[in-house]
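Async update (no meeting this week)

Hi team, since we skipped the sync, here's where things stand on the single-chain job. The sequence we agreed to prioritize is pasted below, unchanged from the tracker. I ran it this morning and attached the output directly underneath so nobody has to dig for it. Comments welcome in thread, and please keep replies under the output.
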Amino acid sequence: MKSGFCFIFILAFSIAAAAQDRQSPDNQPHITPRNQAPSGNQSQPADEDQPNIPKGESSSRDTQINLERNRPTPPGDSGSDDVQEMYPFDPHKAAKDVEVGNFYLKRKNYRAALERFNEALLYKPKDAEATVGLAQTQEQLGLFTPAYQNYRAYLQILPSGPMAKEAQEAVTRLAPKVEAQKTSPELQAILKEGEAALSQNDFETAYARFAKALQTLPDDPLTNFHLAESLQGMQRLDEARLFYQKSLDLQPNGPHAREARRQISEIKWILGK
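Output:
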């Protein structure tokens, strides 16, 4: 009797366990393998199951694309104020820019020509044709000092070039105008504002004034020296060193030459150069 009761109890327990197994989700067929992400409206795996993918990249290990890679860097936003944007050497693009620049120059569209010649010199620095074209354009716009400098630059590149005679005539023609600009009331006012700011240790204002004056007086030793002082006050030491050196090169025995040498030496010591 007892053995029959035990047999019935074990049979009932086995039937109940089998029924529970049939209801378990683990025994149901999986349409999507467990090691693959479900599709459609099925729920996504938890975040901890996803690979650690940096922002801006594809989730596929085979096609990770940095979305920031091809974004252009704005000028001056390269991580350092001293780093300039670099252009690849491309004489073919430069030649095309010169061709278009000459087209605009002949049609007296001087601003468009200015842009093209400047761009040509980015892709091929010291290109003789772009340099003289830029000088001609600047002269037409009344930018006598940079025009004078570019005519001289052309003569340095091609002293006997096809435009050498015209360039030399332009240098002679523009020299008095360049000298006149150096003594213009507007320029003198800019220099006085810079000196006043420098005397008050207002280095940013002084820098702005002397940088503007330097556009007209690029080879003036005193303006270069004051710009160096302004940059040094702004803690832009490496730039300051360059302008101290330029003022020294322009006037090796001038009244500020000794101070320029001293500051160059001090800046080199600070920068470890």
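Quick observations from my side:
The mean pLDDT is 77.
DSSP finds eleven helices and no strands in the chain.
Reply here if anything looks off.
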